Amino acid sequence: MKRVHNFNAGPAALPFDVLKRAQEEFINFKDSGMALMELSHRSKEYDQVHEKAIADLKELYHIPNDYEVLFLQGGASLQFAMIPMNFLSSEKVGNYSLTGSWSEKALAEAEKLGKTAIISSSKESKYNYIPNINELIPTDDAAYVHITSNNTIYGTQWAEYPDLGDIPLIADMSSDILSKEIDISKFSMIYAGAQKNLGPSGVTVVIVKKDLLKDIPSSIPTLLNYQTHVKNNSLYNTPPTFSIYILSLVLDWVRAQGGVSAIEKINHEKASLIYNCLDESNGFYTPHAQVGSRSNMNVTFTLPSEELTKDFLAQAKELGFVGLAGHRSIGGCRASIYNAVPIESCEALVAFMNDFKTKY
Ligand SMILES: *Cc1c(COP(=O)(O)O)cnc(C)c1O
Protein backbone atom coordinates (compact mmCIF):
# COMPACT_ATOMS: atom_id res chain seq x y z
CA MET A 1 0.00 0.00 0.00
CA LYS A 2 1.29 3.48 -0.87
CA ARG A 3 1.82 5.75 2.15
CA VAL A 4 3.97 8.88 1.95
CA HIS A 5 5.95 10.79 4.58
CA ASN A 6 3.22 13.34 5.30
CA PHE A 7 4.46 16.74 6.52
CA ASN A 8 1.29 18.62 5.61
CA ALA A 9 0.46 21.63 7.78
CA GLY A 10 -3.28 20.91 8.00
CA PRO A 11 -5.27 18.91 7.29
CA ALA A 12 -2.40 16.69 8.29
CA ALA A 13 -1.27 13.13 8.94
CA LEU A 14 -3.55 10.87 10.94
CA PRO A 15 -2.28 7.81 12.81
CA PHE A 16 -2.27 4.78 10.52
CA ASP A 17 -4.00 2.69 13.20
CA VAL A 18 -6.85 5.20 13.31
CA LEU A 19 -7.37 5.03 9.55
CA LYS A 20 -7.33 1.25 9.65
CA ARG A 21 -9.81 1.03 12.46
CA ALA A 22 -12.12 3.53 10.75
CA GLN A 23 -11.91 1.40 7.62
CA GLU A 24 -12.78 -1.76 9.51
CA GLU A 25 -15.78 -0.11 11.17
CA PHE A 26 -16.78 1.93 8.16
CA ILE A 27 -19.76 0.19 6.61
CA ASN A 28 -21.22 -1.59 9.59
CA PHE A 29 -20.55 0.49 12.68
CA LYS A 30 -20.75 -1.60 15.89
CA ASP A 31 -23.13 -4.04 14.22
CA SER A 32 -25.73 -1.32 13.65
CA GLY A 33 -26.00 -2.26 9.98
CA MET A 34 -25.16 1.35 9.15
CA ALA A 35 -22.09 3.51 8.73
CA LEU A 36 -21.54 5.94 11.58
CA MET A 37 -22.32 8.74 9.12
CA GLU A 38 -25.75 7.22 8.52
CA LEU A 39 -26.73 7.10 12.18
CA SER A 40 -28.94 9.67 13.82
CA HIS A 41 -27.02 12.09 15.99
CA ARG A 42 -29.68 11.30 18.61
CA SER A 43 -29.05 7.55 18.43
CA LYS A 44 -27.65 5.50 21.30
CA GLU A 45 -24.68 4.42 19.17
CA TYR A 46 -23.69 7.97 18.28
CA ASP A 47 -24.31 9.19 21.80
CA GLN A 48 -21.71 6.75 23.10
CA VAL A 49 -19.13 8.03 20.62
CA HIS A 50 -19.90 11.65 21.58
CA GLU A 51 -19.74 11.06 25.34
CA LYS A 52 -16.60 8.96 25.09
CA ALA A 53 -14.80 11.62 23.06
CA ILE A 54 -15.59 14.27 25.68
CA ALA A 55 -14.66 12.00 28.60
CA ASP A 56 -11.44 10.82 26.95
CA LEU A 57 -10.28 14.35 26.14
CA LYS A 58 -10.97 15.41 29.75
CA GLU A 59 -9.03 12.47 31.09
CA LEU A 60 -6.06 12.55 28.71
CA TYR A 61 -5.55 16.31 28.93
CA HIS A 62 -6.31 16.50 32.67
CA ILE A 63 -9.12 19.00 32.19
CA PRO A 64 -10.49 20.10 35.59
CA ASN A 65 -14.18 19.75 36.43
CA ASP A 66 -14.91 23.45 36.22
CA TYR A 67 -14.35 23.38 32.44
CA GLU A 68 -16.69 22.48 29.60
CA VAL A 69 -15.58 20.61 26.49
CA LEU A 70 -17.48 21.62 23.36
CA PHE A 71 -17.46 20.35 19.78
CA LEU A 72 -18.31 23.21 17.44
CA GLN A 73 -18.13 23.93 13.72
CA GLY A 74 -16.77 26.85 11.71
CA GLY A 75 -13.12 26.05 12.42
CA ALA A 76 -10.75 27.99 14.64
CA SER A 77 -11.57 30.94 12.38
CA LEU A 78 -15.12 31.21 13.71
CA GLN A 79 -13.72 31.30 17.24
CA PHE A 80 -11.87 34.48 16.25
CA ALA A 81 -15.33 36.11 16.03
CA MET A 82 -17.20 34.18 18.73
CA ILE A 83 -14.68 35.13 21.41
CA PRO A 84 -15.24 38.90 21.12
CA MET A 85 -19.00 38.40 20.51
CA ASN A 86 -19.37 36.50 23.75
CA PHE A 87 -16.71 38.04 26.00
CA LEU A 88 -16.04 41.60 24.83
CA SER A 89 -18.57 44.01 26.33
CA SER A 90 -18.56 47.67 25.30
CA GLU A 91 -16.60 48.88 28.37
CA LYS A 92 -13.89 46.29 27.95
CA VAL A 93 -10.83 45.83 25.74
CA GLY A 94 -9.81 42.63 23.94
CA ASN A 95 -6.04 42.24 24.43
CA TYR A 96 -4.02 40.46 21.77
CA SER A 97 -0.47 39.23 21.53
CA LEU A 98 0.55 39.15 17.88
CA THR A 99 2.84 36.25 17.03
CA GLY A 100 1.80 35.48 13.48
CA SER A 101 -0.88 35.49 10.81
CA TRP A 102 -3.44 33.62 12.88
CA SER A 103 -3.16 36.12 15.75
CA GLU A 104 -3.60 38.91 13.23
CA LYS A 105 -6.77 37.28 11.96
CA ALA A 106 -8.09 36.80 15.49
CA LEU A 107 -7.43 40.47 16.20
CA ALA A 108 -9.06 41.60 12.94
CA GLU A 109 -12.33 39.89 13.92
CA ALA A 110 -12.31 41.47 17.37
CA GLU A 111 -11.69 44.90 15.81
CA LYS A 112 -14.99 44.55 13.96
CA LEU A 113 -16.80 43.94 17.21
CA GLY A 114 -15.27 46.10 19.94
CA LYS A 115 -12.25 47.77 21.47
CA THR A 116 -8.92 46.02 21.12
CA ALA A 117 -5.27 46.48 22.06
CA ILE A 118 -2.07 44.84 20.89
CA ILE A 119 -0.11 44.18 24.07
CA SER A 120 2.88 42.43 22.52
CA SER A 121 4.09 41.64 19.04
CA SER A 122 7.03 40.20 17.16
CA LYS A 123 5.79 41.46 13.80
CA GLU A 124 8.80 43.75 13.32
CA SER A 125 11.09 40.74 13.08
CA LYS A 126 8.91 38.61 10.81
CA TYR A 127 7.43 36.82 13.78
CA ASN A 128 10.57 34.82 14.41
CA TYR A 129 10.22 34.83 18.20
CA ILE A 130 7.67 34.73 21.01
CA PRO A 131 7.63 37.91 23.10
CA ASN A 132 8.78 37.55 26.71
CA ILE A 133 5.81 36.60 28.90
CA ASN A 134 6.84 39.17 31.49
CA GLU A 135 6.20 41.90 28.94
CA LEU A 136 2.66 40.73 28.41
CA ILE A 137 0.95 43.41 30.47
CA PRO A 138 -2.84 43.64 30.08
CA THR A 139 -4.50 47.03 29.63
CA ASP A 140 -6.92 48.48 32.16
CA ASP A 141 -10.35 46.98 31.51
CA ALA A 142 -8.94 43.98 29.66
CA ALA A 143 -11.75 41.54 28.83
CA TYR A 144 -9.22 38.81 28.09
CA VAL A 145 -5.74 38.23 26.71
CA HIS A 146 -5.58 36.20 23.51
CA ILE A 147 -2.49 34.29 22.40
CA THR A 148 -1.68 31.81 19.62
CA SER A 149 0.21 29.07 21.41
CA ASN A 150 1.85 27.68 18.27
CA ASN A 151 2.37 29.69 15.12
CA THR A 152 1.81 27.20 12.37
CA ILE A 153 3.10 29.42 9.57
CA TYR A 154 6.19 30.94 11.24
CA GLY A 155 7.14 27.90 13.30
CA THR A 156 7.27 29.47 16.75
CA GLN A 157 5.69 28.17 19.95
CA TRP A 158 5.14 29.55 23.43
CA ALA A 159 7.43 27.63 25.80
CA GLU A 160 5.61 28.98 28.88
CA TYR A 161 2.40 30.83 29.52
CA PRO A 162 1.79 34.00 31.50
CA ASP A 163 -0.02 34.24 34.83
CA LEU A 164 -2.56 37.00 34.46
CA GLY A 165 -4.36 36.84 37.79
CA ASP A 166 -8.07 37.51 37.25
CA ILE A 167 -7.79 38.31 33.56
CA PRO A 168 -8.88 35.40 31.37
CA LEU A 169 -6.19 33.90 29.17
CA ILE A 170 -7.54 32.53 25.88
CA ALA A 171 -5.36 30.46 23.56
CA ASP A 172 -5.69 29.35 19.97
CA MET A 173 -4.02 25.94 20.24
CA SER A 174 -5.05 24.71 16.81
CA SER A 175 -1.60 23.46 15.95
CA ASP A 176 -0.28 22.23 19.29
CA ILE A 177 -3.24 20.99 21.29
CA LEU A 178 -2.49 17.66 22.95
CA SER A 179 1.15 17.79 21.82
CA LYS A 180 2.48 18.37 25.34
CA GLU A 181 1.30 18.46 28.92
CA ILE A 182 -0.07 21.84 29.95
CA ASP A 183 -1.68 23.26 33.06
CA ILE A 184 -5.23 23.82 31.81
CA SER A 185 -6.07 25.88 34.88
CA LYS A 186 -3.88 28.72 33.56
CA PHE A 187 -6.37 29.23 30.74
CA SER A 188 -9.97 30.39 30.71
CA MET A 189 -10.40 29.04 27.24
CA ILE A 190 -8.50 26.90 24.74
CA TYR A 191 -9.72 26.26 21.22
CA ALA A 192 -8.46 24.30 18.25
CA GLY A 193 -9.55 23.26 14.80
CA ALA A 194 -9.12 19.48 14.85
CA GLN A 195 -7.29 19.04 11.57
CA LYS A 196 -3.72 19.34 12.88
CA ASN A 197 -3.39 17.25 16.03
CA LEU A 198 -6.83 15.88 16.81
CA GLY A 199 -8.46 14.46 13.72
CA PRO A 200 -10.07 15.55 10.49
CA SER A 201 -11.38 19.02 9.67
CA GLY A 202 -14.99 19.82 10.48
CA VAL A 203 -14.88 19.90 14.26
CA THR A 204 -13.45 22.58 16.53
CA VAL A 205 -12.67 21.73 20.12
CA VAL A 206 -13.38 24.37 22.76
CA ILE A 207 -12.28 23.89 26.37
CA VAL A 208 -13.80 26.69 28.39
CA LYS A 209 -13.95 27.52 32.08
CA LYS A 210 -17.52 27.70 33.36
CA ASP A 211 -16.70 31.02 35.05
CA LEU A 212 -16.12 32.71 31.74
CA LEU A 213 -19.62 31.88 30.53
CA LYS A 214 -21.68 33.72 33.10
CA ASP A 215 -21.94 37.17 31.51
CA ILE A 216 -22.64 36.27 27.90
CA PRO A 217 -25.27 38.63 26.47
CA SER A 218 -28.50 36.91 25.37
CA SER A 219 -28.61 39.10 22.24
CA ILE A 220 -26.02 36.87 20.52
CA PRO A 221 -27.48 34.65 17.76
CA THR A 222 -28.23 31.19 19.12
CA LEU A 223 -25.58 29.18 17.33
CA LEU A 224 -22.85 31.73 18.08
CA ASN A 225 -23.55 31.74 21.82
CA TYR A 226 -21.36 29.35 23.84
CA GLN A 227 -24.21 28.87 26.32
CA THR A 228 -26.30 27.19 23.63
CA HIS A 229 -23.67 24.54 23.12
CA VAL A 230 -23.02 24.08 26.84
CA LYS A 231 -26.74 23.64 27.57
CA ASN A 232 -27.14 21.14 24.75
CA ASN A 233 -23.89 19.22 25.20
CA SER A 234 -22.80 20.29 21.69
CA LEU A 235 -25.95 18.68 20.27
CA TYR A 236 -28.14 21.75 19.74
CA ASN A 237 -28.07 21.04 16.04
CA THR A 238 -26.45 18.22 14.06
CA PRO A 239 -22.78 17.99 15.03
CA PRO A 240 -20.09 16.79 12.58
CA THR A 241 -20.58 13.19 13.70
CA PHE A 242 -17.94 11.60 11.51
CA SER A 243 -15.24 14.11 12.52
CA ILE A 244 -16.04 13.60 16.19
CA TYR A 245 -15.87 9.83 15.70
CA ILE A 246 -12.41 10.03 14.12
CA LEU A 247 -11.36 12.39 16.90
CA SER A 248 -12.41 9.75 19.42
CA LEU A 249 -10.26 7.17 17.61
CA VAL A 250 -7.32 9.58 17.72
CA LEU A 251 -7.83 9.91 21.48
CA ASP A 252 -7.77 6.11 21.81
CA TRP A 253 -4.51 6.16 19.88
CA VAL A 254 -3.04 8.84 22.19
CA ARG A 255 -3.89 6.64 25.16
CA ALA A 256 -2.28 3.63 23.49
CA GLN A 257 0.93 5.66 23.00
CA GLY A 258 1.09 6.23 26.75
CA GLY A 259 -0.87 9.48 26.97
CA VAL A 260 0.10 13.09 26.43
CA SER A 261 3.39 12.93 28.34
CA ALA A 262 4.62 10.07 26.15
CA ILE A 263 3.53 11.97 23.03
CA GLU A 264 5.34 15.05 24.32
CA LYS A 265 8.57 13.13 24.75
CA ILE A 266 8.50 11.71 21.24
CA ASN A 267 7.50 15.09 19.79
CA HIS A 268 10.58 16.57 21.43
CA GLU A 269 12.77 13.87 19.91
CA LYS A 270 11.25 14.36 16.47
CA ALA A 271 11.77 18.11 16.53
CA SER A 272 15.33 17.79 17.93
CA LEU A 273 16.32 15.53 15.05
CA ILE A 274 15.36 18.15 12.50
CA TYR A 275 16.61 21.20 14.41
CA ASN A 276 19.96 19.46 14.95
CA CYS A 277 20.16 18.84 11.22
CA LEU A 278 19.53 22.56 10.57
CA ASP A 279 22.00 23.69 13.24
CA GLU A 280 24.73 21.37 12.01
CA SER A 281 24.37 22.33 8.35
CA ASN A 282 26.90 25.18 8.52
CA GLY A 283 24.34 27.66 7.35
CA PHE A 284 23.04 25.62 4.42
CA TYR A 285 19.67 25.38 6.13
CA THR A 286 18.65 28.47 8.11
CA PRO A 287 15.93 28.03 10.74
CA HIS A 288 13.37 30.86 10.79
CA ALA A 289 12.55 30.73 14.51
CA GLN A 290 14.94 31.99 17.16
CA VAL A 291 16.25 29.47 19.70
CA GLY A 292 13.88 29.52 22.67
CA SER A 293 10.86 30.16 20.46
CA ARG A 294 11.16 27.14 18.19
CA SER A 295 8.06 25.10 17.54
CA ASN A 296 8.04 21.36 18.10
CA MET A 297 5.17 21.14 15.62
CA ASN A 298 6.19 23.21 12.59
CA VAL A 299 9.88 23.44 11.72
CA THR A 300 10.47 26.33 9.29
CA PHE A 301 13.71 26.94 7.41
CA THR A 302 15.18 28.38 4.25
CA LEU A 303 17.89 27.29 1.81
CA PRO A 304 20.57 29.54 0.29
CA SER A 305 18.53 30.39 -2.83
CA GLU A 306 15.12 30.15 -4.45
CA GLU A 307 16.53 27.78 -6.99
CA LEU A 308 17.88 25.37 -4.39
CA THR A 309 14.56 25.54 -2.56
CA LYS A 310 12.77 24.51 -5.74
CA ASP A 311 15.19 21.63 -6.32
CA PHE A 312 14.90 20.56 -2.72
CA LEU A 313 11.11 20.45 -2.83
CA ALA A 314 11.04 18.67 -6.19
CA GLN A 315 13.49 15.97 -5.11
CA ALA A 316 11.73 15.56 -1.78
CA LYS A 317 8.45 15.02 -3.57
CA GLU A 318 9.95 12.35 -5.76
CA LEU A 319 11.18 10.49 -2.71
CA GLY A 320 7.74 10.53 -1.09
CA PHE A 321 8.03 13.56 1.23
CA VAL A 322 4.82 15.55 1.02
CA GLY A 323 3.91 19.02 2.26
CA LEU A 324 7.37 20.55 2.77
CA ALA A 325 6.77 23.87 1.00
CA GLY A 326 6.54 26.83 3.37
CA HIS A 327 3.27 28.74 3.63
CA ARG A 328 2.68 30.96 0.59
CA SER A 329 3.03 34.07 2.81
CA ILE A 330 6.66 33.38 3.88
CA GLY A 331 8.02 30.84 1.38
CA GLY A 332 10.97 28.58 2.22
CA CYS A 333 10.28 25.16 3.71
CA ARG A 334 8.24 23.83 6.58
CA ALA A 335 8.05 20.37 8.06
CA SER A 336 4.88 19.95 10.11
CA ILE A 337 5.48 17.14 12.56
CA TYR A 338 2.25 16.84 14.49
CA ASN A 339 1.49 14.01 16.92
CA ALA A 340 0.60 11.52 14.18
CA VAL A 341 3.79 12.00 12.14
CA PRO A 342 5.98 9.00 13.00
CA ILE A 343 9.58 9.51 14.11
CA GLU A 344 10.63 7.32 11.16
CA SER A 345 9.38 10.05 8.80
CA CYS A 346 11.53 12.61 10.62
CA GLU A 347 14.57 10.33 10.45
CA ALA A 348 14.01 9.78 6.74
CA LEU A 349 13.67 13.53 6.20
CA VAL A 350 16.92 14.24 8.04
CA ALA A 351 18.74 11.61 5.97
CA PHE A 352 17.43 13.23 2.79
CA MET A 353 18.35 16.73 3.99
CA ASN A 354 21.90 15.65 4.79
CA ASP A 355 22.25 13.99 1.38
CA PHE A 356 20.88 17.03 -0.39
CA LYS A 357 23.26 19.34 1.46
CA THR A 358 26.27 17.16 0.57
CA LYS A 359 25.30 17.09 -3.10
CA TYR A 360 25.08 20.88 -3.35
C1 LIG B 1 -4.94 26.18 10.98
C2 LIG B 1 -5.05 27.24 12.02
C3 LIG B 1 -6.18 28.06 12.13
C4 LIG B 1 -7.33 28.01 11.16
O1 LIG B 1 -8.15 26.96 11.45
P1 LIG B 1 -9.52 26.72 10.63
O2 LIG B 1 -10.05 25.54 11.36
O3 LIG B 1 -9.16 26.48 9.22
O4 LIG B 1 -10.35 27.93 10.81
C5 LIG B 1 -6.21 28.99 13.15
N1 LIG B 1 -5.20 29.11 14.03
C6 LIG B 1 -4.09 28.35 13.94
C7 LIG B 1 -2.99 28.52 14.94
C8 LIG B 1 -3.99 27.39 12.94
O5 LIG B 1 -2.89 26.63 12.86
TrEMBL record:
Q: Which residues form a coiled coil?
A: none
**Broadest EC class?**
transferase
Q: Name one GO biological process term.
A: L-serine biosynthetic process
Q: Which cofactor does it need?
A: pyridoxal 5'-phosphate
Which residue ranges does the record assign to the Aminotransferase class V domain? 5-348
- Cofactor notes: Binds 1 pyridoxal phosphate per subunit.
Q: Which family is annotated?
A: Belongs to the class-V pyridoxal-phosphate-dependent aminotransferase family. SerC subfamily.
Q: How does it assemble?
A: Homodimer.
- Name of the protein in question: Phosphoserine aminotransferase
Species the sequence originates in:
Litchfieldia salsa
Tell me the name of the encoding gene.
serC
